[in-house]
Amino acid sequence: MNSSCLVDNETKSPFLIGVAGGTACGKSTVCKNIIEKLGQTNLDETRRQVVSISQDSFYRELNAVEKIKASKGQFNFDHPDAFDEVFMYQTLTDIQAGKTCSIPVYNYKTNSRSKKDTIVIYPADVVIVEGILAFYFPAIRDLFHMKLFVDTDSDTRLARRVPRDINERGRDLEQVLNQYMNFVKPAFEEFCLPTKKFADIIIPRGAENIGMFLFSL
Ligand SMILES: Nc1ncnc2c1ncn2[C@@H]1O[C@H](COP(=O)(O)OP(=O)(O)O)[C@@H](O)[C@H]1O
Ligand SMILES: Nc1ccn([C@@H]2O[C@H](COP(=O)(O)O)[C@@H](O)[C@H]2O)c(=O)n1
């Protein structure tokens, strides 16, 4: 899929920061807190100097058989093949070229991109990209000027994921636990954890330790 981007008159090439880590380690919360601490939260989105995007926007569209599997918690969303690597790479290179880009909003209840909503990413000084496999694909990994890995232990992550998936992602307990044991945990060990070595900064436990990152700026 081609990204939907427009060149801005005043070209701005942002500093790209990647944030990786296992599911529910606190990646989104870290991004949100960084944006808050840098005083960006209440700015109009066209004027923000620091913005974040999620790798989840780049989950690929599923075919009919995969959709049925996904609805039963039997699709592996933690495998690199679940992502549209080309679309993500293209979008990030467009962002880096100073273009205004529209990226999909991902819907975890339908396991697909929203049909009507997109997020517009305007040129900014810093763009933070978070995702479980943000460092997995070499071409994407090489785009980041700085890489953070949020290191939160597996028990804590599971304890955060269960209520989140039930309350926010429309899942039931059995489905969350089955998906975790069958796909999430093994894929974390095979694909996500080995990318920790690419990080410039490791943030233990997440949001409470973003001071380490802010200090490095
Ligand atoms: N430091 C923290 N302490 C307690 N709960 C947290 C913390 N960081 C995140 N959470 C909660 O854990 C869940 C997952 O956090 P989130 O930032 O969405 O993780 P990720 O983006 O890595 O999946 C959310 O419900 C969030 O509110
Ligand atoms: N349709 C989907 C898509 C993804 N997931 C799970 O989301 C996790 C990644 O998001 P985090 O916020 O937790 O980093 C990943 O572990 C997938 O299992 C899903 O359940 N359904």
Quick overview of this protein structure:
35% of the residues lie in helices and 23% in strands.
The domain count comes to 1
What structural class do you assign from the helix and strand content? Answer: alpha/beta
Could you give the order of strands across the largest sheet?
Answer: 3-6-2-7-8
Largest sheet: 5 strands, parallel
Count of helical segments? 7
Distance between the termini: 35 Å
Specify Rg, calculated over alpha carbons. Answer: 17 Å
Proportion of helical residues: 25-40%
In terms of per-residue confidence, which ranges show pLDDT below 50 for 5 or more consecutive residues? none
The run of helices and strands is EEHEHHEEEHEHHEH
* Cα shape: globular
Bound molecule kinds, no repeats: adenosine-5'-diphosphate, ligand L45E5XJ5
The first-level CATH class name: Alpha Beta
CATH architecture: 3-Layer(aba) Sandwich
CATH superfamily: P-loop containing nucleotide triphosphate hydrolases
User: For the residues shown, what is the average pLDDT?
Assistant: 92
